[in-house]
Amino acid sequence: MVPTLESGDWLLVRYGARVRPGDVVILRHPFQQDLLVVKRAVERREGGWWVLGDNAFAGGDSTVYGVVPRAMVLARVTARLRPRGTAGGGREPVRGMRATLGWAYSAVRPVRSDVSLSRRLRAR
Question: What is the CB-side half-sphere exposure of residue 119 using CA atoms within 13 A?
Answer without folding.
Answer: 13
